[in-house]
Amino acid sequence: MRGLLFCNVRRVVVLALPQQQAAMLRRSREARWRKTRVSGFVAAEQQSAPASSPPSLKRRHEGDPEEFRSPPKRLDTGEGHSQKVATHYNALQECGLVERSRSRILHMRNFNNWMKSALIGEIVEKVKRERRDVTVLDLGCGKGGDLLKWRKGHISKLVCADIADISVDQCRQRYDDMRRRSHPNERIFSAEFVTADCSRELLSDKLKDPDLRFDICSCQFVYHYSFESHSQADMMLKNACERLRPGGFFIGTTPDAYELVRRLEESDANSFGNEVYRVTFLKKGDYPLFGCQYDFNLEGVVDVPEFLVYFPLFVEMAKKYNMRLVYKKTFHEFFEEKIKDEQNRALLQRMQGLEQYPADGRDRLASDSPGEYEHAERRARTSGVRLPLGTLSKSEWEATSIYLMFVFEKMS
Ligand SMILES: C[S@@+](CC[C@H](N)C(=O)[O-])C[C@H]1O[C@@H](n2cnc3c(N)ncnc32)[C@H](O)[C@@H]1O
């Protein structure tokens, strides 16, 4: 485990665990992996066929990303992966506040949501320095978990696209409710909703105005589904970047392939995980550039297949659309940076993105398992540390620290 979070209301401490060791391990694995991959890149560029083998939440502040909701029963429809993804997300139930507040991973969900808020806030602010009216594409919008973030950013127009038609309907419904309940003086962005497999269909063919230009494309917890094949990953990228204005941004979150492979190779089996998540690969030691499938199991229920996104390849592919990588940061790096800001800290607290340790009299910790809060216990015993602390259980942190954030900019 490479780092655990502590946040005191006034002071934030990020305790880095054996970072140096992890960095060394990572470098050596990256080098090994890169060696086998660079040669595979050309071949993979040419093949377009899919590689088939391969504590009580009191208020709602932000949306709730679907990937951290309780998924439905295991799906085995025998359909292609895109269809499986749509069926899976369509079947996800909107769960109420009470049910959500009972979730073992409530704080991790809130934490991830806060991470997205911080990223979206940063980029909207950047664009607003240059432009008054901001147009956004939410690629893989789900049920509209980020609508409130766009509202907070005072954007002008939002296009929401997703493969799952029921999710798109629920997103539209959520938007309509938001508009209806808003103050008459508040100018809420206009919105358009599109159902499309964005890894196989051209989005601009489905837009009301095919010449519409975007300032931001946000792709949160989505892009990895398209890495099933080169043609799908390229189409998703095209949809994300083709209609961006020069100086516009393509932002998102996706699992960090290095981290996944590192954990897999450290494990004795084809899988790794803990009491909240499990990742299972089809095989070990062979990581094709596309179609490198794994199952991500959260809270004990199998999810739809996902695919490794080899980041250097992603960066290369983005150049075709005149995109330059601004940064790629692990969740840990991004958190460390964003938590320095007073407003972000206050937002994290309001969103209950960290769990209070020790729990106050009315609440229990998210887990009773031994070792889940050892890091917090140790920290709490350190002299001069003010209690309570804010943290995540060890298992939640291991699950969330799989992800990374990226920002690309469109060149002129
Ligand atoms: C983990 S959810 C994230 C939803 C939302 N972005 C959020 O952060 O709350 C992944 C979403 O990606 C969508 N998705 C997956 N593959 C897609 C594709 N090929 N085209 C469009 N949407 C896709 C799914 O339907 C699902 O809504």
Can you offer a commentary on this structure?
The chain has 412 residues and is an alpha/beta fold. It has 13 helices and 15 strands. The radius of gyration is 21 Å and the shape is globular. It has a seven-stranded mixed β-sheet with strand order 5-4-3-6-7-15-12, with helices on both faces. The chain has a four-stranded antiparallel β-sheet with strand order 8-9-10-11. It has a two-stranded antiparallel sheet with strand order 1-2. Strand 4 (157-162), helix 6 and strand 5 (190-195) form a beta-alpha-beta unit. Helix 1 (19-46) crosses helix 8. The structure holds S-adenosylmethionine (SAM). Residues 65-67, 82, 85-86, 89, 140-142, 145, 162-164, 167, 197-199, 220-222, 225-226 line the site of S-adenosylmethionine. S-adenosylmethionine binds at residues 65-67, 82, 85-86, 89, 140-142, 145, 162-164, 167, 197-199, 220-222, 225-226. Catalytic subunit of the mRNA-capping methyltransferase RNMT:RAMAC complex that methylates the N7 position of the added guanosine to the 5'-cap structure of mRNAs. Binds RNA containing 5'-terminal GpppC. The record marks 143, 149, 174, 224, 306, 403 as: mRNA cap binding. Residues 103-411 form the MRNA cap 0 methyltransferase domain. Belongs to the class I-like SAM-binding methyltransferase superfamily. mRNA cap 0 methyltransferase family. Residues 43-56 have a biased composition (Low complexity).
